[in-house]
UniProtKB/TrEMBL annotation:
SUPFAM superfamilies: Clavaminate synthase-like
CDD domains hit by this protein: CAS_like (cd00250)
Residues in Gamma-butyrobetaine hydroxylase-like N-terminal domain copies: 8-87
Pfam families on file: GBBH-like_N, TauD
Domain TauD/TfdA-like, chain residue ranges per copy: 114-356
Record keywords: Dioxygenase, Iron, Metal-binding, Oxidoreductase
GO biological process: carnitine biosynthetic process
Record has Oxidoreductase as a keyword: yes
Name of this protein: Gamma-butyrobetaine dioxygenase
Organism of origin: Ruegeria marisrubri
NCBIfam families the record matches: carnitine_bodg
Protein family per UniProt: Belongs to the gamma-BBH/TMLD family.
């Protein structure tokens, strides 16, 4: 609730009942007006362009009415009401400086001490609250298991159906993870794999990966997940100059594993937004192409930082390990969480299927559940 509002032609200053104060520019308020001529009442999309707003837009009146803000804009002589709660949620008059590598609210970094979050197949299909909790775990921790599922091939597609759509690649809608003769990818052998993010040679990368177990009687083949954000945090804390190198210069990745396919990308191993937020990790030694974008006099220091980051990723104290049983699966945020596996023998059988999906679908489903079923978020 608002306590008071003052204004000049270009700025409205608000005092909230909780004692906080925030300023809003006239042009910002006009652009974000909530009236039906500015925004569609059904989908909330804006109905005007920036060019439709007069360049000399100003505020001629601003007052508190029943705890909310009522503003009149000139030269349109247009009056709009803004709920106080909406203004509080969208206030931008605040300190915005962050240390490089800051992590968004709602994300929790972790190491091997965490208990793997998970949910039951039947529960997430039956209960909105269970489904919401499972999706929220992926959003917060970057991974979660799903147990008690069916063991029929393509069951992983039903996992993606819970929140979005499968992203098809040159591997098809999904791929098999089992020992093959003359494999096109090392993932299709019994070799152990270092923790990595998948498909760093794509731009954009698939943002979610689902791995689903159908058979697993082979000795070994345990799955391991590592929080790449936590590894980057450690590097930033212990070697800030090395962190800046891996974030400041692009690495290169390439895949040419089958006829007609040559995928390449040029992205940093540690990706930051323009305001320094940690938003992505790309780490895959098998797909790394020669580094050619680092200055000569920084190359040795870059490799030292690369080695240091790899050491954190390989540290047993960083990884959560589990062996998937038939009907179990896990989902990882492929922009953050690295996955690995221990080697396994030819005795017995190990058959997993994998597919990719997009994180925006998961986050959209989660946000929609929070809006339509707020009790599920409590």
């Amino acid at each position: 609730m608002l306590h008071a509002a003052t204004h000049d032609p270009s700025v409205v200053t608000l005092d909230f009942a909780n004692g906080t104060r925030a300023r809003f520019h006239a042009i910002w308020l006009r652009d974000n007006a909530l009236d039906p001529e500015t925004r569609d009442p059904g989908n909330g999309q804006r109905l005007i362009t920036i060019g439709d707003i007069p360049a000399d837009t100003s505020v001629s009146a601003a007052e508190v009415v029943e705890g909310d803000l009522r503003v009149t804009f000139q030269p349109e002589d247009k009056t709009v009401t803004f709920p106080a709660s909406w203004l509080a949620d969208h206030a931008y008059d605040r300190e915005m400086s962050h240390a490089k590598g800051w992590i968004a609210p709602g994300i929790t970094t972790w190491d091997a001490s965490i208990e793997a979050p998970g949910a039951d197949w039947a529960e997430v299909h039956r209960s909105t609250a269970a489904k919401r909790a499972w999706l929220a775990a992926v959003a917060e921790y970057g991974f979660a298991k799903l147990t008690g599922g069916p063991t029929e091939p393509e069951s992983l597609l039903k996992v993606a159906d819970l929140f979005g759509y499968v992203r098809e690649t040159n591997y098809g809608p999904y791929f098999e993870v089992r020992t093959e003769v003359n494999p096109t990818n090392l993932a299709f052998t019994g070799l152990g794999l270092q923790a990595h993010t998948d498909n760093p040679y794509r731009d954009p990368v698939p943002t979610l990966q689902i791995l689903y177990c159908l058979e697993n009687s082979a000795k070994g083949g345990d799955s391991i997940v590592v929080d790449g954000f936590r590894a980057a945090e450690r590097l930033r804390e212990e070697n800030p100059e090395g962190f800046a190198l891996l974030a400041g210069y692009p690495a290169r990745f390439e895949y040419r594993g089958s006829d007609g396919v040559c995928l390449r990308s040029r992205r940093p191993m540690i990706e930051l937004s323009p305001d320094g937020q940690l938003i992505g990790i790309r780490f895959n030694n098998r797909s790394a192409a020669p580094l050619v974008d680092i200055p000569f006099d920084r190359m040795e220091a870059y490799y030292a930082a690369y080695r240091q980051l790899a050491g954190y990723i390989d540290d047993p104290a960083m990884g959560v390990s589990f062996k998937l049983e038939p009907g179990e699966s896990f989902i990882v945020d492929n922009t953050r969480v690295l996955h690995a596996r221990t080697g396994y023998s030819g005795a017995g059988s190990r058959w997993l299927q994998g597919c990719y999906a997009d994180k925006d679908g998961l986050l959209s489903t989660l946000a929609a559940l929070d809006m339509t079923q707020p009790e599920a978020a409590e």
